[in-house]
Design goal:
Strand order of the largest sheet: 2-3-1-4
Order of helices and strands: EHEEHEH
Number of strands: 4
Shape: globular
Helix content: 10-25%
Structural class: alpha+beta
Largest sheet: 4 strands, antiparallel
């Protein structure tokens, strides 16, 4: 298990996620990423150095502690509990082909 201190996070828009190389991050695909309630953005994470797929998008990189505080905030658009996080219960992100 990776040390949380070395984990980093970034948000992708649904358009970016539709062509993103998920082999460079810990999520397997757009289906395993944490999506915002409106499916407009997802969060990806990795350990260590920023992967080229994220660096190429010039995304803001956040540490594990910053990201966990943000998603646990009651005003967060990212759901941490309940049916909104279940991929089979939420709508697919815009542009997602299946």
């Amino acid at each position: 298990m990776a040390n949380n201190a070395n984990k980093n996070y970034a948000n992708l828009t649904s358009k970016e996620a539709s062509t993103f190389d998920f082999t460079q991050v810990m999520e397997n695909s757009a289906d395993t990423a944490r999506w915002s309630g409106d499916n407009s953005e997802c969060i990806v994470h990795w350990v260590g150095k920023t992967p080229p797929a994220v660096a190429g998008l010039k995304k803001t990189v956040r540490s594990h502690s910053v990201e966990m505080s943000a998603i646990k905030d009651s005003k967060s658009k990212y759901k941490t509990e309940g049916t909104n996080t279940a991929p089979f219960l939420r709508a697919k992100p815009p542009g997602k082909k299946k």
